[in-house]
Specification:
Number of helices: 7
Radius of gyration: 15 Å
Structural class: mainly alpha
Order of helices and strands: HEHHEHHHH
Strand content: under 5%
Number of strands: 2
Shape: globular
Distance between the termini: 32 Å
Helix content: 55-70%
Strand order of the largest sheet: 1-2
């Protein structure tokens, strides 16, 4: 398990939008990249992926009329589609790559890891109830494989996933 406190300049990335991350990374709109490039893209977007997913779930459960709900869904969609529509050269399986990174390497199936990731963002959004945070973090951890499927499988549409997950 990697400790997010070891991430270089972690705090600088907390308020970045998906577009900001891609600009910072100097990402080109390629159709296929080497495995190293895809892994770098996932690394660059993984905090936004978790934060926006959790913010959407929080809205769905606790504050469906939140003015930011639509915005957070659009940020989540942008993040997911950026990973979905990029192939890995050499026919490397995207689903296995995402599972290795997000589950095996980063423990995103562990609610305590998710709580560490969302803590600062939720504080900034004035979402301070620890019970709500724990609930949302558990929902994310329970859904990590569904999120991986939505990103990696061509048969799953991002819009449908978001609609179904946050209805």
């Amino acid at each position: 398990m990697k400790d997010i406190s070891q991430q270089s300049d972690f705090m600088d990335f907390l308020d970045e939008s998906v577009d900001d991350v891609l600009k910072r990374m100097g990402v080109l709109n390629e159709m296929a990249v080497p495995l190293k490039g895809y892994r770098a893209r996932v690394d660059g977007l993984r905090f936004q992926l978790v934060e926006n997913w959790c913010l959407c779930k929080w809205c769905q459960i606790y504050h469906p009329k939140c003015g930011n709900f639509a915005y957070w869904k659009s940020e989540l969609k942008a993040c997911m589609e950026n990973l979905k529509f990029l192939e890995i050269k050499g026919g490397i399986d995207k689903k296995n790559t995402l599972k290795r990174m997000l589950v095996d390497d980063y423990d995103y199936d562990d609610p305590s890891m998710i709580i560490m990731i969302i803590r600062t963002k939720f504080n900034r959004e004035k979402i301070l109830d620890n019970t709500q945070r724990e609930h949302v973090a558990s929902k994310f951890a329970d859904n990590i494989h569904g999120l991986i499927n939505a990103i990696s499988l061509s048969s799953v549409y991002v819009d449908d996933y978001i609609q179904h997950t946050f209805h």
